[in-house]
Amino acid sequence: MVVSVIGSExxxxxxxxxxxxxxxxxxxxxxxxxxxxxxxxxxIEAGIAERWIVxxxxxxxxxxxxxxxxxxxxxxxxREIVPLLRRxxxxxxxxxxxxxxTAVASVVEMTPEVIEIELARPRPDLLKLFAxxxxxxxxxxxxxxxxxxxxxxxxxxxxxxxxxxxxxxxPEEERPTPEQNVLLRGERAATAILRFVERHSDLVxxxxxxxxxxxxxxxxxxxxxxxxxxxxxxxxxxxxxDGFLSDPDNRGAIAQAVDxxxxxxxxxxxxxxRETILPEQLDSGAPPMVPTWATLPPEQRPAAARARVAAWxxxxxxxxxxxxxxxxxxGGTLLWGHLARDLYAIGVRPVRVAQDxxxxxxxxxxxxxxxxxxxxxxxxxxxxxxxxxxxxIEAARLAxxxxxxxxxAALADRLLTQDVAFVPLSRPFRWSLVALRLRQWQxxxxxxxxxxxLRTDPN
Length: 459
Hints:
By secondary structure, the protein is of the alpha+beta class. The protein contains twelve helices and 18 strands. The strands form four sheets. Strands 8-9-10-1-11-18-12 form a seven-stranded mixed β-sheet, with helices on both faces. A five-stranded mixed β-sheet has the order 15-14-16-13-17, sandwiched between helices. A hairpin with a 2-residue loop joins strand 6 (104-111) and strand 7 (114-119). Helix 6 (248-257) packs across helix 8 (301-316) and helix 10 (374-381) packs parallel to helix 12 (402-419). The protein is globular and about 80 Å long.
């Protein structure tokens, strides 16, 4: 099986566990695994732990390790797992999920095969965080860990992976054949798409909106194009709160100026528009807060937004200029065309800047949620939000009970929405090219597709 993941050459996660690229995450997930991992549909399955229980009102998780071996053949034991987990949970490990693991109080070895993770506060959604590649247990650097694959030498173009042998297998059972190997490449979208269209690969994964126009130009068979119902955030974060954006009503004018239905419909018919920060209630104590500007019918919103801009211009003598930080690829250009048109229509002068421009006024946030938790959405949307909203988000983090956390999340959602600190547009757009023989490939909210869950013979 030949797989292309869009991005740079993959590397196994290092000890510091800083933010991993998509290729790094896929390779790390293949060579290593955490206590648990994701299956083909984004649900939790056994990793190094074969089973687990949750006790003490959700404040204690007890994991029993399976009969696993490291890449060098040594048996996996709790005495090695505990320090690895402690290091990965340390505050010095800066990555995208570290801020959501602060409830972990201790990791202890109970027996050589049993580990207990104690929490300061109940977290019923903890397992989805522990299934992330950022918490895969890597031992021995590039060799990986106890994952479903082992790295083999000899590949001239890419990384050759072969299924790891099950230590509990029948000795007479056939060993993996070369047809079960995976050749993994990290490469540019155009190269990956061309390789697939010419039938030199079986899967292209890691596609985003930024690469979508390249895929459309290649015109692959529709049956091979698969889009994930990815959960997460796709919208514009308010980065600077001065000038025109110092007033929440003006920020609301920007939010209501965007024709979301036209934007998403021009990309894909089943890419839904969104007007709220939370996609659904999740663990919040209230349904998603609907912004005030969204109570106007769509056909009346541009006129209301123009009135706000006209009032500003009458006072300041010129049209407001806003710098939008967007990706530099063709998908970013497509997004820019829609946003620029809508902002020009209400009297705003938009300027496109690089995604990492420090002087941007608004910046695109395009993130898949690692788990279904209201605080994640609110914290990631709060790039430059009010002190009150930040306080409510922090209260949700520190809440001792689930009802307290739900109430704090609902308050934070209301404050963020009223403050118009984030302009929701849709959910993240994630696509793959999938050969028909990969029957186990399944679209899922995590937009995550483990390499050992693509065919009917997973290891």
